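User: Run a structure prediction on this.
Assistant: Running it now.
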Amino acid sequence: MMENPLRSHYQEELMEAGCDEAGRGCYAGPVFAAAVILPLGFFHPLLNDSKQVTPENRNELRIYIQANALAWAVAQVDHEEIDRINILKASFKAMHLALDQLKPRPRLLLIDGNRFTKYKRTPHRCIVKGDAIFSSIAAASILAKTWRDEYMQGLHAEFPDYRWDSNKGYGTRQHREAIEKHGLCKYHRKSFNINPWESAQEELAFMD
């Protein structure tokens, strides 16, 4: 099995937490975020950016991360609040809510992406494609993705026509055609300009 190419930590003096979100580009459902503090030397050969990991391996990693992290937390912001404050602010709020739950408290935050709203007085580093560089961000991406996928599976049972069990709320052709036929439901993000025949979001393989 190939060795995991991820870096264990950004630095080793301060306790650091990796943060990532899932569901930012979806037409429906909440955005989820996770924050994870890993012990020095944490390793799992399958760990990677969640987009590069199969659903089966993501579920295996979720169990391993939750059992072996020093601390982890997952939070969500629902579709109604996304409509009120916009998806970018909602993504940052979900990260803040996850960080609120962490014990012990991290002294440095590693954020996937190029923007973030400062969390209290804790310094942070924004790292583009950080979920493919640092283990803690990759672990956060796995937790955010698996928790959100599980949540969307539950919403699918309530509104099966949109097939959220497979598309997880992303703007796939299948989802757009269902919107054209059935209209929007209460879990859709009304602030998004959803055109069922527009392929701006294309087939995203249901990943962030």
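The chain is about 35% helix and 15% strand.
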